[in-house]
Specification:
Number of strands: 12
Strand order of the largest sheet: 1-7-8-10-9-3
Shape: globular
Bound molecules: adenosine monophosphate, magnesium ion
Strand content: 5-15%
Largest sheet: 6 strands, antiparallel
Structural class: alpha+beta
Distance between the termini: 35 Å
Number of helices: 19
Length: 487
């Protein structure tokens, strides 16, 4: 008897009702002497799980994949994807889904063990994960969540005593990932390769049921699905751009249909504002650089649209026309979200035609004077315009005058303006140097204190507390920062 009830596991496995081609039952690779290094207690509680019980033997064994909770049905999902533009058949090569946890609020979340072992989709890989990248995913996804950006989250990070071989021998880690679902653009691309309209329809209906149930009544539910996914992705990417988040590997298999950010590999936050910023060591061409993210999302959505064509219309030309009309709207929908976000960052309550010019003038000046993106908005919020070359420049002073005119024109007291700005300009972001420093202590010395502190500071980036000020210092530029996929 396991203690699943005591822990609070409450699984359903709706994904397994899809045709068999969409998944494969898989057994996790036993983990040696697993221990929990991070447990997300607030998240556990919102899922209806009891942290005390999760920390006991059975709970740890569940999170390590050594013992399956009652009702779990460990499966690896099939999917395909365009990786850096090239189409490949993929699938969960090192992740296994335990099932869908039904929360006390009757919400449904995938519980997935990332780094659980080899599956039929593993290709050459070992199916495992090193502890460092799993800690990194845990840290950054929590920071994203606190920044109000839709994201998958980490319930726990497990460390084991197994060796994982990369360039060197590392410790093995397993991340319990929570997602609204793991249905990706790549899942639909995979469905299309089956050349089986029933399977494709089953996936589309499943997705609508799970994420967009209100579309069932629409006259063209599949076209509406495309529209909704486009809308959510536009909203998501706008949020990324507004905080300077660079995903780093926006392959179509790393784009969810739910609109959550997924797969924190070589991602990083931008320091100095520059549309050309790229941190990932594997993104040689800069395909996924900061300024390209909206265009790449649009491209990925076009791949998604292609998969829906057989469901849109019997006549292919009509289907293409319908899909194109939706995809062409992405840019303006994205732009509207971005403009809304920028207005909030600058304390503006009302739309005006000149908004775009006003925002671009500021960004141009930031680029010209190599200003830190987050710090610039923070300085404007706190009205502490010192310590940056930008603030002494004529370009900025002119811009500041224009901005002040706009602020005065709107009939809002300054405390409301300030509140709006404080709620949209984080006091801190997971700066690359802070993340690396905390991870180094955790990975090399088993010292989690720094990461705990950082997680705590990042848990409410809009608090603007004194404690956070220490983290908000712009890093001294060192050698160019690079992130690695680090599987
Ligand atoms: P990602 O870049 O994390 O989105 O992974 C791309 C694909 O590679 C997915 O199908 C992963 O499951 C697979 N993959 C990544 N690392 C490994 C690994 N160590 N073993 C097996 N498959 C892996
Ligand atoms: Mg992926």
């Amino acid at each position: 008897m396991t203690n699943s009830k005591e822990i609070g596991w409450n699984f359903d496995n709706s994904y397994a009702n899809l045709p068999d081609v969409f998944y494969t039952r898989s057994s996790p690779t036993p983990a040696k002497d697993p221990s929990i290094v991070f447990l997300n207690k607030p998240l556990a509680s919102s899922l209806g799980l009891h942290s005390d019980a999760l920390q006991k033997e059975d709970g740890v064994q569940n999170l390590a994949g050594n013992k399956l909770p009652d009702g779990a049905m460990n499966i690896a999902q099939a999917y395909a994807g365009h990786q850096f533009g090239n189409f490949t058949k993929l699938g969960d090569g090192r992740a296994m889904m335990l099932g869908e946890q039904i929360t006390p609020q009757s919400e449904r979340f995938d519980i997935q063990l990332k780094g659980a072992g080899r599956t039929v989709y593993s290709r050459g890989g070992d199916g495992q994960a090193a502890i460092g990248p799993m800690l990194r995913e845990y840290l950054i996804s929590e920071a994203m969540y606190a920044l109000n950006i839709p994201t998958t989250r980490g319930l726990a990070v497990i460390k084991t005593k197994d060796p994982v071989y990369r360039e060197t021998e590392l410790s093995r880690g397993i991340l319990t990932r929570i997602a609204k679902s793991h249905v990706r653009v790549g899942t639909f691309q995979y469905a299309l390769t089956l050349d089986d309209d029933d399977a494709l329809k089953a996936l589309a209906d499943y997705t609508i049921d799970r994420h967009y149930p209100y579309l069932k009544e629409e006259t063209s539910p599949y076209l509406s699905l495309l529209e909704q996914v486009m809308e959510r992705q536009a909203a998501l990417i706008a949020k990324w751009q507004l905080v300077g988040f660079i995903h780093g590997v926006m392959n179509t298999d790393n784009m969810t249909i739910s609109g959550e950010t997924i797969d924190y590999g070589p991602c990083a936050f931008m320091n100095t504002f520059d549309l050309n910023t790229v941190y990932s060591s594997i993104d040689i061409q800069g395909r996924y650089k900061y300024g390209n993210q909206p265009a790449i999302a649009n491209w990925n959505l076009a791949r998604f649209a292609e998969t829906l064509l057989p469901l849109l219309h019997r006549d292919e030309e009509s289907a293409i026309k319908q899909a194109e009309e939706v995809i062409q709207k992405f840019h303006s929908v994205f732009n509207d979200y971005w403009l809304d976000g920028m207005r909030a960052k600058l304390g503006l309550f009302e739309k005006e035609n000149e908004d775009k010019v006003l925002f671009e003038d500021l960004l141009d000046a930031m680029k010209k004077y190599k200003a830190d993106y987050t710090d610039t908005f923070l300085a404007l919020t706190n009205n502490e315009l010192e310590g940056m070359v930008l603030f002494q420049s004529e370009d900025f002073l002119n811009w500041h005058e224009q901005w002040n005119k706009r602020l005065q024109k709107q009939n809002k007291p300054m405390h409301e303006v300030n509140e709006l700005m404080r709620n949209h300009n984080p006091a801190l972001i997971p700066r690359n140097h802070l993340v690396e420093h905390a991870l180094e202590a955790a990975v090399d010395r088993d010292d989690y204190h720094e990461m705990e502190q950082l997680l705590d500071a990042l848990s409410n980036p809009f608090a603007h507390s004194a404690k956070q000020a220490a983290y908000a210092k712009t890093p001294v530029p060192t050698e160019p920062y690079q992130t690695f996929c680090g599987t």
